[in-house]
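1st attempt posting a full record on here, be nice pls
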Amino acid sequence: MNSVTVAAAAWRFVPRVPSRKRAGNWESFKEVISTASNSFTEICVNKFDLNLGLTREIENYVEKKGIICLGHIPFDPIFTKAMIKVQTVFEYNGQSAVGEALRGTWQRLAEKLELG
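the predicted structure (as C-alpha cells):
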C-alpha cells in the first residue's frame, strides 16, 4: 500500500491519504483540512517515507493553511510486531527509528502545549 496517514494535534485524526490512484481521497483530505483548519494547528505525517512526493505535497498544502508539521513517522513493521506482542513500540524496541521519531514528535507537541 502506497499511502501516508496524517494525524492532527489534539487527537483529531485525518484519514489516510493514498497515492494518486485514489485521488478522491486526496480531495477529501484537502476538504477536511480546509473545513477544520481553524481547529488544526499541527499535524504529524505517518508512513511519510512510502511516498515522499505526496508527503511534500501534504506539507506544502498545510503550510499554506498555517498548519505546522510537528513530525514524520517512518513506515516500520515494528508497529505490527509490537501489536502482535501486545506491547507499545517503546516496550518492543524503544531505540528504533520509529521510537525516536515518536519521541521527537511528542516532545514538539508537548512544547507547543507547554507540557514539557
